From TrEMBL:
It is a lipid-anchor; GPI-anchor. This is Phytocyanin domain-containing protein. It is found in: Cell membrane. Gene3D superfamilies: Cupredoxins - blue copper proteins. It comes from Salix suchowensis.
Length: 134
C-alpha cells in the first residue's frame, strides 16, 4: 500500500507480489478484510495482458461468475481503479473459469465521514447566559 497524498488516497496492490492470479499466496477475501478502503483510494491489478482481465460487476454477477454484463472492464494488464463512492465493489476475472476457481474480490469502501467541528469549551458566568470558546 502506498500513499499518494492527502487528497489522492492510498494505492493498494491486489495480490501483492503475486498480482491478479488464480492461486494467490493469500486469498483475496483475506487481503480485502485486513485493509480499510476509502473513497479516492486506488487499487492496482497486475496480470498478463491478453490472458486475463478484471471485470467490475454486480453482486449477482459476482456470485454467478457471469462475465456477460460487466459494469466496467479492465484489460491492459496493469489496471487501476479509483473508488469514487462508498459501499461494495465486486471484481471478477474476465475468464469465468478463473472466477469459479476463486479469482474474485469484494471490496467494501468505508462511508465518508465529515470532519468533526472544532472542540469548544463552554463557561457559565451565571444562570442567564453561557460563553463558548472555540
Amino acid at each position: 500500500m502506498l500513499h499518494n497524498g492527502l487528497s489522492q488516497g492510498y494505492k493498494f496492490y491486489v495480490g501483492g507480489r503475486d498480482g491478479w492470479v488464480t492461486s494467490p499466496s493469500e486469498r483475496y477475501s483475506q487481503w480485502a478484510e485486513r485493509n480499510r478502503f476509502q473513497v479516492n483510494d486506488t487499487i492496482f491489478f497486475k496480470y498478463k495482458k491478453g490472458s486475463d482481465s478484471v471485470l467490475i460487476v454486480s453482486k449477482d454477477d459476482y456470485y454467478s461468475c457471469s462475465t456477460k454484463n460487466p459494469i466496467k472492464s479492465l484489460t491492459d494488464g496493469d489496471s487501476t481503479f479509483i473508488f469514487d463512492r462508498s459501499g461494495p465493489f465486486f471484481f471478477i476475472s474476465g475468464n469465468s473459469d478463473n472466477c469459479s476457481k476463486g479469482q474474485k474480490l469484494i471490496i467494501v469502501v468505508m462511508a465518508v465521514r465529515p470532519k468533526p467541528p472544532p472542540s469548544c469549551s463552554i463557561f457559565s458566568h451565571n444562570t442567564s447566559f453561557f460563553t463558548a470558546t472555540c
